[in-house]
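Chapter review: from sequence to fold.
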Amino acid sequence: MTKRSGVLLLALILSGCISHQQQQTQPPAPVEPAQPAQPVPPPAQPGPTETVPVPPKMQSVNWDASVSPLVAQMLKADGVTAGSVLLVDNVKNSTNGSLQSSKATGALQNALASNTQFTLVTPQQLATAKQTLGLSAEDSLVSRSKAVGLARYVGAQYVLYSNAEGDVKSPTLQMQLMLVQTGEIIWSGSGVVQH
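The token string follows.
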């Protein structure tokens, strides 16, 4: 046993020496210097979102259905000389909101286009007269006297003055047929605008 334990002891010592020798012959692993920590950028914040303003919603109006009954009434009015020249003034918007009055004026002109009672002042004649008088092409004449003055300038015997008024959600359309020579209202009518 002693011989065996001596050999075993010698084997252990030698293995320890070899292991110790291997550790000394291997160069130590290089230690990298500590690098300063890179700042982490904050998560991208969404930029200010551009909000596009929403235009006011226009009421869908059936202008043709709104003006046709009034035009039919006007064409039956007493005291109108057949074949006379009629100036159709732009429809005014006197409501509490936005209304497509140019479409109303177009519907009014369309309703009168095939009538046999009046000859209409053309939009081109009207635009030329407004330009000559220094009025904007979009001038809605606002007053009856201004409309009558323009009608005299273009040689019209009658002027149709129209006004949409009241609540924009359910406006009323008022129309007046005036004799240019005297400014007398020879017919007037009103009706609820059809949606």
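Two observations follow directly from the output. The mean pLDDT is 81. DSSP finds five helices and six strands in the chain.
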